[in-house]
From TrEMBL:
Gene Ontology biological process terms in this record: amino acid biosynthetic process; aromatic amino acid family biosynthetic process; chorismate biosynthetic process
Enzyme kind, highest EC tier: lyase
Reactions catalysed: 7-phospho-2-dehydro-3-deoxy-D-arabino-heptonate = 3-dehydroquinate + phosphate
NAD is among the record's keywords: yes
Keywords attached to this entry: Amino-acid biosynthesis, Aromatic amino acid biosynthesis, Cobalt, Cytoplasm, Lyase, Metal-binding, NAD, Nucleotide-binding, Zinc
Highest taxon of source: Bacteria
Pathway where this protein functions: Metabolic intermediate biosynthesis; chorismate biosynthesis; chorismate from D-erythrose 4-phosphate and phosphoenolpyruvate: step 2/7
Name by which UniProt lists this protein: 3-dehydroquinate synthase
Lineage: Bacteria, Pseudomonadati, Bacteroidota, Cytophagia, Cytophagales
Species per Swiss-Prot/TrEMBL record: Marivirga atlantica
Length: 338
């Protein structure tokens, strides 16, 4: 797996000096151009900026074309380096474009949101959305390294911090009850470096055992069958959800399914609901949206032989994967939780 550095973004200069490359490209969106690029600009050797539009709607093939075009027009060769400076949208799409341009150039992740620092920049999943479905086109490929600097949080809106916190809570729920306890007792605006590092290390340990998601890695997808469906269903609505928010509601729904299927006791379900509702509040969806959510669940990449397969909790701190869940069970969970 790639090396993770928890240090100031300015140390990029030294880290780059250990690599040989023909040219450097920096991928940003308008917000990371404004808030994050100034922190590193002076430390970077000569480079070309590539800017895409911010937001999940732009994690698509049009942005890929823009990125590939820039690389091509600037004559990037196979020894070029792409530095992804941004949140999960930038690290996902940048990693994918780098991995496919001329069959692969190297890339570096410099994540600037809490979510991308604890989750998206780590583990080698890259990709884009397609036909209204999440992350349908992509490859597994690791960055040269990941440089995590929490100074970037200073300009992050509170809503983005809250969204990233959901993936940290997920790490506790699936693999470490103590991490869950530590997190529910803390303010997501004031996350210590220690908690952040603990969270990333939970993900790293899972990825190390199963980098290409043949089995165990699917536990990192807890909350994502329904969460991704909610995120996609509401993406072009008046009230889109951020990824982590969608996952938080997905985790409530999928915890209720784990209870229905007798994997977790009532007391743990209550604890999960209480904690998640306190941070993310309730979500109300129109009845008419239920069928659309079910349709989206049917496209989940974990499904097998036409069955919807979920990753569900066995208890707080432990999860299992490949569990077949019926359409009725999903619809009941949507009715009960949303
Ligand atoms: N590859 C993986 O393993 C993985 C894991 C989790 C999530 N993801 C993906 O990550 C994406 C979500 O990532 P995200 O939440 O970081 O979203 P994002 O990249 O859209 O960033 C959120 C917003 O914050 C802005 N921003 C970024 N850094 C900033 C900063 N320091 N100051 C001010 N504004 C800043 C961005 O411009 C954007 O508007 C989703 O597409 C999700 O599917 C991937
Ligand atoms: O790293 C993983 O594996 C994850 O599942 C992490 C998730 O938080 C993340 O949202 C990931 O992008 C989901 O991937 P997908 O395979 O469900 O598209
Ligand atoms: Zn996620």
């Amino acid at each position: 797996m790639s090396k993770l550095y928890f240090q100031k973004a300015q140390s990029i200069e030294k880290l780059l000096s250990a690599l040989s490359y023909s040219s450097i490209f920096i991928l940003v969106d308008e917000n990371t151009f404004k808030h994050c690029y100034p922190l590193v600009r002076g430390m970077l050797p000569d480079h070309t900026l590539i800017q895409i539009e911010a937001g999940e709607q732009h994690k698509d093939i049009n942005s890929c074309q823009l990125i590939w075009n820039s690389l091509s027009q600037q004559n990037a060769d196979r020894n070029a380096l792409l530095i992804n400076l941004g949140g999960g949208v930038i690290t996902d799409i940048g990693g994918f474009c780098a991995s496919t341009y001329k069959r692969g150039i190297r890339f570096i992740n410099l994540p600037t949101t809490l979510l991308s620092q604890v989750d998206a920049s780590v583990g080698g999943k890259t990709g884009i959305d397609f036909n209204g479905y999440k992350n349908q086109i992509g490859v597994f490929n690791e960055p040269e390294f990941v440089l995590i600097d929490t100074s970037f949080h200073q300009t992050l809106p509170e809503r983005e911090l809250r969204s990233g916190f959901a993936e940290m809570l997920k790490h506790g729920l699936i693999a470490d009850a103590q991490h869950w306890k530590d997190l529910v007792g803390c303010d997501f605006n004031l996350i210590s470096n220690q908690l952040l590092e603990n969270s990333v290390s939970i993900k790293q340990k899972v990825v190390e055992k199963d980098p290409n998601e043949k089995g165990l890695r699917k536990i990192l997808n807890f909350g994502h069958t329904i969460g991704h469906a909610l995120e996609s269903a509401l993406l072009n609505s008046n009230e889109p959800l951020l990824h982590g928010e969608a996952i938080a509601h997905g985790m409530r729904c999928e915890a209720s399914i784990a209870y229905e299927l007798e994997y977790i006791p009532q007391e743990e379900l209550n604890q999960i609901n209480e904690s998640l509702l306190k941070i993310y509040g309730p979500l109300k969806i129109k009845k008419a949206l239920r069928e659309n959510i079910l349709r989206l669940c049917k496209q989940d990449k974990k499904n097998q032989n036409g069955d919807i397969r979920m990753s569900l909790l066995n208890k707080i701190g432990e999860a299992n994967y490949d569990i077949a869940v019926s359409e009725n069970t999903i619809l009941n969970a949507l009715d009960n939780c949303l």
